[in-house]
Design a protein that fits this description.
By secondary structure, the chain is mostly helical. The protein has one domain: Formate dehydrogenase/DMSO reductase fold. Helix 6 packs across helix 8. The two termini are about 25 Å apart.
């Protein structure tokens, strides 16, 4: 390869040509000294120092975790919430490949990439949170926990879905490298990977909720429910699609030069479709919440201080954005759709934080409050993921059209 378009699309590039192309692509594109790069780079640098301190001196050196509160910000936000926000990938791949709704294809690769990076970086957050990180393989092999443990199932689902998302995105990597034969092989695996990925996502989205069913006496009754696994699964649908709306809004501005005119014209219909699904699933979620309160007879707690906080979450950040979505659909108000998406994302963060932190051992004399260092490391992880996403999108056919030779692949061999 010589780095130009013609050589990239050569039928059989040699290994030397591929390596030369990769080395060329490692060079920065665009200005380095931007305000975002400077701020995020500083946050990442400080985060790296704190991570080194954490591994050198233990969790207590930078966190406020304890035996009473073993799960803090890293697990709650980076993992439990992050996995919900990555749910847009399994929803969209199911709609495109299984239901055949092709209008969502322009945003499919970006959504899959976001999910893959989320799982990779949040797996790192799990490693940070373990008191003995070298034991990270224990849940996967069933050691200490047993093969019937919920964590055993979630760990396997997590690891397998990470590989599945990579397979789903891999055709874009092959196109970037100009590897036609490999692109054809990887494309043929896509449909099977989608079916496997949707199955895994259904299981581990609900599985994360099932973990909290073992803490019945520690979670405030309004948040504890036998429906937690179902609530986690349903909320992952509108959480993931709201993230797609938010991410798409940012991408339209940052990567405007990469988006084709055809894709840009279809954005309005895509936005309306996503809003419609979000509104429907949020209505289902609200129905399940009412069903849960009725079944558990916990209505009386609504008039307590914790009950008012529960209403802030459910009414303010589920019911209200649900209404916003419905109104926006009738008026085709795209700004209102974006506002509803942001409110929905805040609500999902609040829900996961409530279950794992605020409503967890709510009556303890000393409650967990994350340290500034935990917050800083979380921001560093998020910024590092954004950097990786930006690097890939600027080089691979994620938002831009694939090469002509790739567009000639069979329908189920393209993503």
């Amino acid at each position: 390869m010589n780095g130009d378009t013609q050589s990239i699309t050569a039928p059989h590039p040699t290994a030397r040509e591929v390596w030369h192309h990769v080395r060329t692509e490692l060079r920065p594109k665009g200005r380095l000294l931007t305000s975002f790069n400077v701020i995020s780079g500083a946050v990442i640098a400080v985060g790296i120092v704190l991570v080194i301190i954490r591994f050198a001196f233990g969790l207590g050196s930078i966190t406020n975790l304890s035996q009473a509160f073993p799960w803090g910000l890293w697990i709650t936000f980076d993992v439990i919430t992050g996995v919900a926000f990555a749910g847009g990938a399994y929803v969209l791949t199911f709609m495109v490949y299984v239901l055949g709704i092709d209008r969502y294809k322009p945003i499919l690769r970006a959504t899959i990439l976001n999910a893959f990076l989320a799982y990779v970086f949040y797996a790192g957050a799990v490693l940070l949170d373990l008191g003995r990180p070298w034991h990270i393989a224990n849940p996967i092999i069933g050691n200490s926990f047993g093969l019937s443990s919920v964590l055993f199932l979630v760990s396997w689902h997590f690891a397998l879905y990470m590989l599945t998302a990579l397979v789903e995105f891999s055709p874009a990597i092959a196109e970037w490298l100009g590897l036609r034969r490999l692109r054809k092989l990887l494309g043929s695996l896509t449909f099977g990977a989608v079916i496997f990925g949707v199955t895994l996502s259904t299981l581990h989205q609900s599985g994360l909720g099932a973990v909290f069913m073992m803490a019945k006496d520690k979670i405030f009754p309004l948040w504890y429910s036998e429906y937690i696994p179902v609530l986690f699964f349903v909320s992952s649908i509108f959480a993931g699609l709201s993230m797609v709306v938010f991410e798409g809004t940012i991408s339209e501005r940052v990567f405007d030069h990469l988006i084709t005119s055809k894709s840009r014209l279809s954005r309005a219909d895509i936005l309306v479709g996503l809003a419609r699904i979000c509104a429907g699933t949020m209505f289902v979620y609200l129905f399940l919440e009412v069903l849960s309160l009725t079944h558990s007879q916990t209505w009386r707690y609504l008039w307590s201080s914790m009950g008012l906080w529960f209403l802030v979450e459910v009414v303010g950040f589920v019911a209200v954005p649900c209404v916003f979505y419905v109104v926006a659909l009738r008026q085709r108000n795209f700004l209102l759709i974006r506002i509803a998406a942001i409110m929905t994302m805040v609500g999902v963060v609040l829900n996961r934080m409530n279950i794992a932190i605020f409503a967890y051992r709510w009556d303890a004399p000393h409650h967990y409050i994350p340290s500034w260092m935990e917050v800083e490391v979380t921001l560093a992880i998020v910024f590092a993921e954004i950097w990786a996403f930006r690097w890939i999108v600027n080089r691979m056919p994620v938002l831009s059209d694939p090469p002509l030779w790739a567009s000639e692949q069979p329908k189920h061999a393209s993503t």
